[in-house]
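Figure 2 data, in text form.
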Amino acid sequence: MKQKAKDFAEKAHFGQTRKNSDAAYITHPIRVAERLETEGFSNELVCAGYLHDVVEDTPFEIEDIEEAFGPIVTKLVAAHTEDKTKSWQERKQHTIDTVKHADKDVKYLIVADKLDNLLGLEQDLRKIGDAVWEQFNAGFDKQKWYNESIAENMCYGIADTDVPAYFGEFSEAVKRVFGRG
């Protein structure tokens, strides 16, 4: 099932590139899925890692995920898919609320995604400096608020023993990129 999800994501994201680079977009979902697999999470969660941006950023719809991968993967992908008809602020607040109140598998997916994005942003800042912020719908201050809010809420409601190491890595990356702490 994991290979099927990877293949599906590669097809869906074909021709797309990452912000600020010419790197194939698929490198991001692959890294997210690999992080989840390294943690020993379920096949369904790893599949959701590959597929997490498909509905948001390609012509495929949630029904396509459901048909190909079933209800568990679909629930995970749907929980992490932003409604692009809403404003940036509304979408990000929804993600913050989701990461605070969702079950731990959804939290694991969201934070793995946000960590990979933040590590990429950190590399871009080293390469091109503050010009990187021009590529975003929201600048430094709003990005800082968003990422700090994810960090503040990601562990809410889960036992310390269920918090993966990369949650700490995310908190540290937020501090490095946004200069807090």
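Caption note: The first helix runs from residue 2 to 12.
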